[in-house]
Amino acid sequence: MIEVKELSFYVQGSRMSHSVLRCCYSRCQSRYKFLYSQSTVVSFSSTAVTTTSNRNETPSSRPAPPPIRVAITESAGRGVFATRRIGAGDTIHTAKPIASHPSLSAIDTVCYFCLKRMKTFTGSEPQGVSFCCEKCEKSSKVFYDVEKKADWLAFDDYCRLNTQPIITLQPLKLSKYQDISDWTGFLVTNVIEEKNLETSADWCKVVGLDRVRALEKEVMGRTEGMKYPLLVKRLACMVISGGAQADIIDILQPASLTPEMILKMEEGFRLLRSAFSKANIRDEHISFFTKDWYTAVLARIRINAFRIELAGGVYEDLLSLAAASVEAESAVGNAIYMLPSLYNHDCDPNTHIIWIEDAEAKLKALRDIEEGEELRICYIDASMSYDARQNILSRGFGFKCNCQRCLSGD
Ligand SMILES: C[S@@+](CC[C@H](N)C(=O)[O-])C[C@H]1O[C@@H](n2cnc3c(N)ncnc32)[C@H](O)[C@@H]1O
């Protein structure tokens, strides 16, 4: 059994317990009032639960706290643990993003704040940014008032160029690979190393286009560090407007970056800084925006951001929901969360993270979970072979997986 050292953590009016990492968390205390769950609720304190919108409510009128706590695991840093038995299919808790951003290709079709799908646009001119309701429009002021002042043409072009989900393929090498799982490893390796070739029609025929697309989404969604400058831009606008503190995601684990990766990030930083400078943002509002800040934020986003795929509708069972999400080609953007970022990975997970209509994440139990068990989600396509999984986890997330399935060599 993993030794549980407690720490203070209050989420959406709920209470978890406390002791290790106290300094880390108290350092962060003030910033949490800004955690716009997107207009909510999140305050952290070492002594009491406070919810910014619920201060006058009696304890009995508060929603029940989620049955989880954050604690230190034996070998994977912090993790999330069940505080009571949780039934298969139960929603463990929901989480609103700290920041989310639509993919550039989805900007005309989803709400610029919550990423909810809107009526399909049929005209030839792009519609640009829009909101699904007044509440989202109002909530977006925290970044949009600043964003509107700047010209984003060059920065958006840079993002488009660096986030194309293109799968690399070198058909000549294929004869070396006997079965699909080996090919998967090959594919994953190459996607990470180079991104210039188009998906090969022949290769897709053999492996199956759906499989290639699913992998493409998986790989590009969570391992490509350059994918997230749009999230950094949104966070920067929130900080400039005073809607978030510059260290809002410091509490999350950063990826280790190589000098090459840092070099690659430089252009994004330069373009973002130039857009802010030309917009005449006052110096004191932009003083936090250094190359170190940009790199540190991207390093955290790299291993903690989620690609949002909307399932839409109401799905009773998780399998039909997963199928619907793949069929609908439903990736609408990326988002970063606080609590979901503390879930560790397992190649045979007991928990699943899903999005139904917008960027609010739902954490659901995939099977019965006992009190004290660690809750883990799967970061990648669990159907890949052992070698392919290790490869992508190591290169994309920087760790060797210690889950039971990997320890058994499966
Ligand atoms: C998104 S964070 C999860 C929360 C993290 N443990 C923390 O303390 O913030 C991902 C990081 O957790 C660790 N991790 C997650 N799953 C793991 C696993 N199955 N085996 C080993 N380390 C894991 C790795 O260091 C990984 O880079």
Report what the structure shows.
The chain has about 400 residues and is of the alpha+beta class. The chain has two domains: about 1-130 and about 315-380, SET domain (Beta-clip-like), CATH 2.170.270.10; about 140-165 and about 225-305, no CATH class. It is built from 14 helices and ten strands. It has helices spanning about 20-30, 135-140, 140-145, 155-160, 180-195, 200-205, 210-225, 230-240, 260-280, 285, 290-305, 320-325, 385-395, 405, and strands at about 70, 80, 90-95, 100, 305-310, 330-335, 345, 350-355, 360-365, 375. The strands form three sheets. Strands 1-2-10-7 form a four-stranded mixed beta sheet, with no helix packed on it. It has a three-stranded antiparallel beta sheet with strand order 3-9-8, with no helix packed on it. Strands 4-6-5 form a three-stranded antiparallel beta sheet. A hairpin with a 5-residue loop joins strand 8 (about 350-355) and strand 9 (about 360-365). Helix 3 (about 140-145) packs across helix 8 and helix 5 packs parallel to helix 13. The protein is globular and about 55 Å long. Mean pLDDT is about 75; it is low at about 1-55, about 165-200, about 220-225 and about 320-330. S-adenosylmethionine (SAM) binds near residues 76, 398 and 399.
